[in-house]
Amino acid sequence: MSGHDGCARMLAAAVVLALTWAGAACGPSGEAPRRSRPTRSPAVASPSADSGQTDDTLQTAIDRSAFLVLALPGTQVLASQRLERLDEPVRPGSIAKIVTLVGALEAGVVRETSRVRCSRTLHLPPHDLTCAHPDLGQPLTPADALAHSCNVFFATVAKRLPRAAFNRAALALGLSPISADVDLPLAALGLAGESATPRALLAMMQRLVQGEQMSIHDSTRRVVLEGLRRATEEGTAAALSAHELQGWAKTGTAPGAGRFEGLAVAVTTDASDRPSRGVVVRAPGAAGRDAAAIAAEILARERSERARPNVASARSTDGPFVQVGRSAQAGSVDTLALDDYVAQVVAGEAPPDAPAAALEALAITARTFALAQGGRHQREGFDLCDLTHCQVLRPETASSRAATVRTRGVVLVEPPSTERSLHQVRPAAVFYSASCGGTLVMPADVWPDGQRLEHLREGADPAAHPVASWQTNVAAVDLERALQSAGARGGTLRDLRILARTPAGLVARLGLDGLVPSELDAESFRRLLGDRLGWHILKSNEYDITRTAAGYRFDGRGRGHGIGLCLRGAITLAQTGRSSEQIVETYFPGLVEAGLEDVQVRSGSEHSRDVRIILPAADEQARSRFSALVERTLADLQRQTGQPRPAIVLRVHPTIESFQRATGLAWWTAGATTRRDARSAAGESRAAAVDVHLVPLQLLERRGTLAATLRHELSHALTFDALVDRPLWVREGMAMHFAKPSKEETGGGHLAAADTSCPTETELRRSGSAEALARAQRRALACVETSLDAGTPWWAVGDDTITVTSSGRHVR
After folding, report:
1. Less CB within 10 Å around the terminal CB: N or C of the chain?
2. Of all helices (H) and strands (E), which one includes residue 615?
3. Three-state SS for 687?
């Protein structure tokens, strides 16, 4: 929850076995996350079977998944989470059966009426596979097999399928062909061969449904779509029809390093049977059926939200933006519009049945906290985490979105004085907890560096709400081991005693008899136990300790730190008819509401134009030198391009593997630059926010290419806005142009390429070697410089709507 108490990292005890969902490490203010009765789906029969098992709730599964929902036709994003995971290549699992069927139909290996009897088991070394689909009582047609993802059918077909036919189908569907050394039957089941990003799999599904850019016969497409439609009705994606969703879908269970991931891609229709939504889900530790269930739930929620005009019309596309570090995936960062972030916080921090006024008060508080604390994780490369250290996030609900919409732009600030106008104020320091235990305290009562803030209420909670009590037991050996792992020395912990309390009754200091140090402040003790034993142990700092035969019993009250807004009290006030404004005034009597446009927002949540450099710990000693090189390079490129500096997050990866996971590029690629659109609070377009990824510094320095690689990627960063709609050869060639050595260094003239034809996107993105990539880049540079030599300004290269006249004017 919003405060210093929280999860510093996921517990070692929460390590998840393959095919088992992991729950959240802790809930609001360190209490155990709320869970409903676990649901189960059919057990996994084989690595490629589209069935799976989950020991956790569907909500937990959604929390851990990456997903994207698009409005069709077009590319408008309606819902998303962990988008970077959708750009990481993965084996497609059974989704590859689409490629197999297209290739077999196009090559005449099977026809629409062909049938293959499923023997239920299949041996493809090193795999022993079992078909998990129901026995249909008859041999399977191609549409039957695709709908139910029959391994036997597709392995049988693959044994007769020419490799060239499979590769032609892959290329027609926008995927990569397989090499000659890949076992074709395994590739036909998605267990071997080329990987693809989940986004590419969704794009393939969209092209199939829309019938665009497809070099396959209509008869082939008809059979494939019939199988994909039946998958949603009776096959592996039947969860969609259970939610009254119609369309086309395919699921897959992707093999990985020691575990599986569930994949689902789908296109659903509207009331007029036209393609309306495209969705892709990547669910770690799951199977294809699980991913389909997640996709169905996300689409059903989006449909429900759309049915509420006041909610659906308020989808956030404007800034400010919040960069959220995701705890479930180390290094994962999501960029969310502020109100999308707030809607997820309200869903994560409040009970689902809380009254609207309480949710609105929480939305105002959460928005203010996010803007005031937006840079607390800046050194880690993001603004806020998704744990109780900052604010817990869950997928938004209709009620959390409605609360966010009704409070849009409202921020709490200190009243402006005569010396300080409203436009000079900043969001106030606000906090909240799940249940204050009936007493509100100050930050100084909880945190060693806390202050006493006049705008916070102190003392008895004005809302006479029921106070939650709790009791937990800790074995003495576990407590002693936790203390020693945190650095305590000495022999055996002989006793644990409360030495002092705050005036409000919270524990202030504890005695550790038998250990050194022999005393510890209460908040450090709570964090220590939370990190090592679980955040359910001490739900607050208001408790008594009793020695038991096995260890110690903690009897406490409340949940959280008890500072600022008490959510339990806010719910009670809302139930008695108080408005959100009255609730906020109750807990923050020294603050006033202001509009977002009137408040100075921390640069951390607006993508400041500073460069944020993220280095591995081993490279921190080089930060000063590297930062100076970055600044010199940017200053020189700005002079050459005349472009403003965008907000840049420059991440140096500790290993080649880390770089590949983040970018999906080959090992010989030294850098990558990607772009995020950024908008002002008023909705006006601004310069792009750019992510730059580099391979390890030591590797670049050993190659002697650090300065050149950095210059190349920063050239991309500065020219992104101007060239965003140009072919890849223009963008790559222009980066080569601005990054290449000067004429004095090369002896004059251009760096010539033997072949001056402009390279294709495939040649640049999917080069088969470092040498092939270098050749394609040189050709891109030659093409760009041919245009520049003809008098075309750099920002007009590749734009056919701009003409250079004899007088040098550029006419559009």
Report:
1. C
2. none
3. coil
Query: At a CB cut-off of 8 Å and minimum separation 6, what does 268 contact?
Result: 240, 245, 246, 247, 275, 276, 277, 279, 299
Q: How far apart are CA 749 and CA 779, in angstroms?
A: 15
Dihedral-angle region of residue 543 (phi above 0 means left; psi in -120 to 50 means alpha; beta otherwise): beta
Longest Cα–Cα distance of the chain, Å, equals 95
Inter-helix orientation angle 356-372/398-406, to 10°: 70
454-490 pLDDT, tens per residue? 889 988 888 877 787 889 999 988 888 888 877 788 7
Q: What is the residue whose two structure tokens read 């909670």?
A: 461
For 552-568, the pLDDT digits (tens) are: 999 988 888 888 999 99
Measure the CA–CA gap between 44 and 131, rounded to whole angstroms.
10
Distance CA 1, CA 26 (A): 10
Question: Residue 17: is it exposed, middle or buried by C-beta count within 10 angstroms (0-12/13-18/19+)?
Answer: exposed
One-letter amino acid of 333: V
Q: Are 401 and 526 in contact (CB under 8 A)?
A: no
HEC readout, 507-524: EEEEEEEEEECCEEEHHH
Q: Please choose, from the candidates 199, 180, 51, 46, the residue with its C-alpha nearest in 3D space to the C-alpha of residue 123.
A: 46
Query: Could you tell me how many residues make up the chain?
Result: 812
Which residues, at least 6 apart from 236, have a Cβ–Cβ distance to it below 8 Å? 50, 51, 94, 133, 147, 148, 149, 250, 251, 288, 289, 292
CA distances from 721 to 19, 171, 686, 715, 802 (A): 42, 30, 9, 11, 17
Angle between helix 398-406 and 338-349 (nearest 10): 130
CB 270 within 8 Å of CB 306 = no
Q: Measured between alpha carbons, how far is 425 from 417 in angstroms, rounded to an integer?
A: 10
DSSP 760: P
- The rounded distance, in Å, linking the Cα atoms of 430 and 456 is 8
Q: Which residues in the chain come in under a pLDDT of 50?
A: 4-56, 308-318, 418-422, 603-609, 678-688, 742-753, 805-812
Q: Residue 215 phi/psi, 5° resolution?
A: -95, 55
Residue type, 27: G
Nearest to 673 by CA among 615, 618, 600, 728: 728
Torsion on CA atoms 539, 540, 546, 552, rounded to nearest 10? 40
Name residue, tokens 């000079």: 424
Q: Tokens 């000495």 map to which residue?
A: 490
Dihedral angle computed from the Cα positions of residues 777, 778, 782 and 785, in that order, rounded to the nearest 10 degrees: 70
Q: What residues does 497 pair with on adjacent strands?
A: 511
Cross-strand bridge partners of residue 116: 140
Q: Which of 132, 126, 169, 162 is nearest to 150 (CA)?
A: 132
Cα 770 to Cα 784: distance, rounded to the nearest angstrom: 21
Distance CA 375, CA 441 (A): 25
Residue 83 makes CB contacts below 8 A (sequence gap 6+) with 66, 68, 334
Q: What is the DSSP string of 121-153?
A: EEEETTEEEE--S---SSPBPHHHHHHHT-HHH
What does the alpha-carbon distance between residue 180 and residue 678 come to, in Å, rounded to a whole number?
A: 44
* CB-CB contact of 94 with 147 (8 Å): no
At 663, list the tokens: 């970018």
Pick from 310, 133, 339: which is nearest to 236 by CA?
133
**Cα–Cα distance, 614 to 652 (Å, whole number):** 6
Tokens, residue 743: 């004429």
At position 690, the amino acid (one-letter code) is V
